[in-house]
Amino acid sequence: MNDREFNTLADAALKRIEGALERSGADLDYALVSDGMLEIECSDGSKIIVNRHDAAQEIWVAARTGGFHYRWDGSCWQDTRHDEELMAALSRIVSQQAGETVSLVG
């Protein structure tokens, strides 16, 4: 995939995440703080960063539980080390860090 295709897919994923956070009704603050970076702040002040990593053509997630990398497999953003899709993983990660159930799937 070329850089333009990657950026289009990654930016669409970030917007999808932002929309899912809005629909979740969770007590979170979130914003696209720069080109390709979404910052999610939990009520305790902790943050989760979701960003487009151009050189690796991946979406990276940084959270208390660790760092995670997701690569486009042709149909979804898939964890490079575990068999978990980005939105399902983010639901789990955000829920753990926020201390409340947050579903970003669907």
TrEMBL record:
Annotated SUPFAM superfamilies: Frataxin/Nqo15-like
Keywords: Iron, Metal-binding
A molecular-function term among this protein's GO annotations: ferric iron binding
InterPro entries: CyaY, Frataxin/CyaY, Frataxin/CyaY_sf, Frataxin_CS
Gene Ontology biological-process entries: iron-sulfur cluster assembly
Signal peptide annotation: none
Cellular component aspect of the GO annotation: cytoplasm
Pfam families the UniProt entry points to: Frataxin_Cyay
Family label: Belongs to the frataxin family.
General function of this protein: Involved in iron-sulfur (Fe-S) cluster assembly. May act as a regulator of Fe-S biogenesis.
The protein's name: Iron-sulfur cluster assembly protein CyaY
Originating species: Candidatus Accumulibacter vicinus
